[in-house]
Each structure stands twice: as structure tokens, then as C-alpha cells.
Automatic annotation (TrEMBL):
Zn(2+) binds at residues 193, 198. GO terms for biological process: regulation of developmental process; regulation of multicellular organismal process. Residues 339-356 have a biased composition (Low complexity). It comes from Labrus bergylta. GO terms for cellular component: nucleus. Its cofactor is Zn(2+). This is NAD-dependent protein deacetylase.
């Protein structure tokens, strides 16, 4: 998955190959060719709906998923995550009745809740978005168990990529780096002027980049998905209602044999029954007689990740990672606050000392 440039090739030395050496090279070429053919088969399978529906999981449960991961056959996990993975950090999701973001935007006097993220409305009325962004700005929240579970997948060499709908940057805070992430709706990490004539970029000190409804998704989203999803051998979907396209459509881009695990408070992304009868669509199928690869674990994202980690034998490691990283973040915050207070006191003292007393008039 690394985007790093390949090291320069050394000049080849002239050698005389023995017959057995030629046989080895031929085997390597055949193996490489086989890998390319596997990639093409998966590509056609996912994009055209071709290929056999092989059942990989021995059981359509969280236990079945854990056994598959521990079998060693699962090497390239793709995660798709939404706002539900950050709710335990104190960040509201969008659609939960009563507590979701859309249910609590009355103070911004919007014509309808979604307007706050629509580019046309933002260009005319930017104030509501910036007020909300101030509330959600990075540094006020710590990553959740779910975020650190994905970091654990990365540390164990199992994470192919994380596709996130979130703008809170908590995946990055948890230790996922730029190449590990596709931030489908942007991030607070970079920003640019929305004026067509300007497009000037700004860094974290000013504001971070958000993709509004009505704007194009990053080019990297489309180029990476063409590579990541045909190779995926386990798709883990967490904390998303799978209602926003084109993100939601990614679930249908994995090979037909690829298991898909949903960890969410309710089932989501299910196939349209009519399209399913016609053999179209790549939506989730948890309950029909034809279900063979989709697993729904109904719980909070943190509870689901802890349960899966326990089945994998990683629970203590995950809990230790969360405890250690939260302590580090708290310590860093204390140091930054102390430093800011010290600088503020020094500035105030210097300002006071620089004011000379007024000379007294002689009577």
C-alpha cells in the first residue's frame, strides 16, 4: 500500500544461467502472472457481478469472522467507517433521533439541517458552518476504542486501508497515517478557498478541509478504491448508515467471496429486494436463505471492536493501547496548557514593564 518511490535499480551483471536457474525464473514469472490474473478476476467479479459466490466464513457470526482472521488467510482488511465510531468520544453522529447532529441545529436557523454541509448554502451563509466547525475542531476529543482497533490492525499488518466519512481527524490522532486513510468527505487537516479564481490552500492553524455536499470527492478516493476493493479479503463497516453515495456503494466493489462485517447500532446497507431477485446490486444480505458472507453485529462500535478483539486474543493488547495513548494525550494537553499560560503571563509582565511612568509636573 505504500506510495513511496521504488529504490533505483542497480545495473544488472552479466551472468550465465544454468538450466535450473531458467526453470526458477520461469516459475517466478508464472507466479507473477497468476497474481495478475487473480487481480483481474477479482476486478471483473466486483465490477460486473461475475464469479462464483464462494463461502469463506464457516459461520455468519462474529466468531466466524474471528476464526477467518486467525486462520492466516485474511491479509488485506479494508475498513469503512462513519460518525458512529466517534460518538463515544463526545462527537454527535448525524441522524440519531434527539441526539444526532441534524436534530440539534436549530440554533443556526437553517432552512433544513443538511444545508450546513451544502456548498451552495455555505457560499452564501458561511457563518453556521464555521460555528459548528469550532465546536468540532480537533484537539478537544480523544480517539475511541474503535479507532485504536484499526490502529491494531495496522500494527499487525492486516489493514489495507481505512475509508472514512468523518472530518474529526481522530483516525490520524490514533496513529493512522496519510497512506492508511482515504478521507472521503475531507478533513480538518487541510483547507482551501472555495472561490474558483482563488483556491488558495491553508494549513491546520487556520481551518481544515471539508468536502461539502455538492463538491467533488478527492481524486484519490476514486483511484485508490479501484486498487483496494478488488484485493480486499475482509470488509469491516462500522458506525455508518450507508446512506450517502458514492461512499455507500463501496460495499459492492469487493469480490463476491469477500466477507463483510457490519458493526453498527442497526442493520444498514441491505440490498433492495427487487434488485436482489433480478441478480443486481451489491448490497448487504444478512437474513435471506442465500446469505453466505455478510455478518451484522448489532452494538456500539466500541463494544463490537472489544468483542472481536477478545475473540482474536487481542483484548488486553487493545485495552492497554487505549489506556497508554489516552494518558499520553492527556499529558501532552497539560504541557501545552501550562506552556500557553506561561507565555501569557510572560507577555503580560513584559507589557506591564514596558509602560514607563508618566513624569510628574513641577508645581
Amino acid at each position: 500500500m505504500s506510495d513511496a518511490a521504488e529504490p533505483p535499480k542497480r545495473e544488472e551483471e552479466e551472468v550465465t544461467l544454468e538450466p535450473e536457474d531458467q526453470s526458477d525464473d520461469s516459475s517466478e514469472e508464472e507466479a507473477a502472472g497468476g497474481t495478475e490474473m487473480d487481480f483481474l478476476r477479482n476486478l471483473f467479479s466486483s465490477t460486473l457481478g461475475l464469479g462464483s459466490a464462494e463461502k469463506v466464513l464457516d459461520e455468519l457470526t462474529l466468531d466466524g469472522v474471528a476464526r477467518y482472521i486467525n486462520s492466516g488467510k485474511c491479509k488485506n482488511i479494508v475498513c469503512m467507517v462513519g460518525a458512529g465510531i466517534s460518538t463515544s468520544a463526545g462527537i454527535p453522529d448525524f441522524r440519531s433521533p434527539g441526539t444526532g447532529l441534524y436534530a440539534n441545529l436549530q440554533k443556526y436557523n437553517l432552512p433544513y439541517p443538511e444545508a450546513i454541509f451544502q456548498i451552495d448554502y455555505f457560499k452564501k451563509h458561511p457563518e453556521p458552518f464555521f460555528a459548528l466547525a469550532k465546536e468540532l475542531y480537533p484537539g478537544q476529543f480523544k480517539p475511541t476504542i474503535c479507532h485504536y482497533f484499526m490502529k491494531l490492525l495496522k500494527d499487525k499488518g492486516l489493514l489495507g486501508r481505512c475509508y472514512s466519512q468523518n472530518i474529526d481527524t481522530l483516525e490520524r490522532v490514533a496513529g493512522l497515517e496519510g497512506n492508511d486513510l482515504i478521507e472521503a468527505h475531507g478533513t480538518f487537516y487541510t483547507s482551501h478557498c472555495v472561490s474558483f479564481c482563488c483556491r488558495k490552500e491553508y494549513n491546520l492553524d487556520w481551518m481544515k478541509d471539508i468536502v461539502f455536499f455538492g463538491e467533488n470527492l478527492p481524486v484519490r478516493f476514486f483511484t485508490s478504491m479501484k486498487m483496494d476493493f478488488p484485493r480486499c479479503d475482509l470488509l469491516i463497516i462500522m458506525g455508518t448508515s450507508l446512506q450517502v453515495q458514492p461512499f455507500a456503494g463501496l460495499v459492492g466493489r469487493v469480490p463476491k467471496s469477500c466477507p463483510r462485517l457490519l458493526i453498527n447500532m442497526e442493520k444498514a446497507g441491505q440490498a433492495d429486494p427487487l434488485l436482489g431477485l433480478l441478480g443486481f446490486g451489491g448490497g448487504m444480505d444478512f437474513d435471506s436463505d442465500k446469505a453466505y458472507r455478510d455478518v451484522a453485529h448489532i452494538s456500539t462500535c466500541d463494544e463490537g471492536c472489544l468483542a472481536l478483539a477478545e475473540l482474536l486474543g487481542w483484548k488486553a493488547e487493545l485495552e492497554d493501547l487505549v489506556k497508554r495513548e489516552h494518558a499520553r494525550i492527556d499529558s501532552q494537553d497539560k504541557k501545552e496548557k501550562a506552556s500557553a499560560q506561561s507565555k501569557g503571563a510572560a507577555a503580560a509582565k513584559g507589557s506591564s514593564a514596558s509602560v514607563a511612568p508618566e513624569p510628574q509636573k513641577e508645581e
